[in-house]
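Please predict the structure of the following assembly.
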Amino acid sequence: MSVTVVGSIAFDAVKTPFGERERMLGGSAVHFALAASFFDEVRVVGPVGEDFGEPELAVLRERGVSTDDVEAVPGGRTFFWRGVYGWDLNDRETLDTQLGVFAEFEPRLSDASRDCDVLFLANIQPDLQRQVRAQCRRARFAALDSMNLWIETARDSLVAAIGEVDCLILNDAELRQLTGEPNLVRAARRIREWGPGVVVAKQGEYGAAMITEEGFFALPAYPLETVVDPTGAGDSFAGGLVGYVAAHPDEPLSHELLCQAMAYGTALASFNVEEFGVERVARLRAEEVSERVVELGRMTAFSALPLG
Amino acid sequence: MSVTVVGSIAFDAVKTPFGERERMLGGSAVHFALAASFFDEVRVVGPVGEDFGEPELAVLRERGVSTDDVEAVPGGRTFFWRGVYGWDLNDRETLDTQLGVFAEFEPRLSDASRDCDVLFLANIQPDLQRQVRAQCRRARFAALDSMNLWIETARDSLVAAIGEVDCLILNDAELRQLTGEPNLVRAARRIREWGPGVVVAKQGEYGAAMITEEGFFALPAYPLETVVDPTGAGDSFAGGLVGYVAAHPDEPLSHELLCQAMAYGTALASFNVEEFGVERVARLRAEEVSERVVELGRMTAFSALPLG
């Protein structure tokens, strides 16, 4: 069994109150793949430029991620993003985005990537997401992320793409924007009418909530004293969640399994933000992930004793 | 055993996307008292004007709340607040505040109110909170709420008042403002250095988080399809939490007990927002509260299975 992810592979320049990095490995597919690598074989699909080299690929390969479908475009430049975070880390400002090789990207998947058991369509143009979805017909679970840009510029295509997956994973502000519903329960119901049985709202420092046919589930973010760099937290969360599903091919895709997957996503996201870029997750150990999941269980458990 | 609460007793004019009320019973002490009335005997301390009548007192008395220390000021006008909520109910605008009898309020507690086992200092001027705290020397648990106005205009007095209680219950934005710490874990540590062993951050639609000596606990808000009027949600939450503590005088004030109390606070807050003002909580039944707490338990439970 394996997970295929399509999304951005990038260089990021990030400044936060805790420091800055001028050019570090990033991108939604990279953050997702490193997180999901704790659970299953992962294949990354996406383009890079000539400026992307062995040291960057090695970070993925050391975690066992297949880079066979990372397409090096001759003469091209790797996707570049520059952003700065303010005092409370909730608001970030994008200072520069250079699409580079992404401007002309047409996903061509190898047979191995097409044959994936689980598929994650990270945040890229929704028509590209649909092209990939159409190539991976055997996936038993497909999830999708997106962003405000596509809600504003390619809404119809995005709604169509959402209709072709099992799970939408989106920031809660974007869920509101997409559905016009300020209320999460109503927004999720609307999305579920479009197709996906599972809707996950990423709520940043407040954690994440999930709505399935069986009901509502929510977890807080794992509490940290210092959040160094939130970049990629959402993709690490998705990597933990989707990876956990991939690691359980013989179990039915139940609400209960997805709740456990939410906990793994939450744990992975918390490690991601402890250092810049992929620095922390690249050297993370599986035992550390499990420990944090157990801690999360303690931090949310209570005895529901009835009154009187 | 009993709970004493000091805070505002008010008439509220509220407009939300779901309707409006021109003049309804409200105020922090009222919302708190109705919620706490499910757990223990509650005594309300606070002033009202000549415009406050039997119908309003009856709402409290029907829930068994003692109004003996509700002081009717001859010739006075009851505290009045007018506010409007926008599309997403998270932001509210205050259109009018008339202090009325609160401008000259000096808390005078009856012996019964002074002898309380548990004390809640709802959001009023911190010097008044300190006067009441000083009168209730036997309380084994005292909690305090406040707001941005007092952080801005009476910070030293507020910090002193916080130093005299066991538990601070505050909106998370106000916790940040008060401590200058954007990070909740750090903000709570700062507050705990001032005195209170327990810090609770109210996070609105995202629920609430608590930090004690034993660690972190968090719960999402109970998911609702329709939130009609958020006014008083925070005070209902505090009423559930503090009331639950009051209902367990023979148990040590443990982290575990407080986690259960957080669940009851969350349940009470969710009922409060289902209708305008106190309309829903005034006719609430204890069984409904317990049912929602059990549901909350299901909505946050997962099996923390380690990897591999």
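The longest strand of chain A covers residues 19-26. The CA atoms of residues 114 and 137 of chain A lie 8 Å apart.
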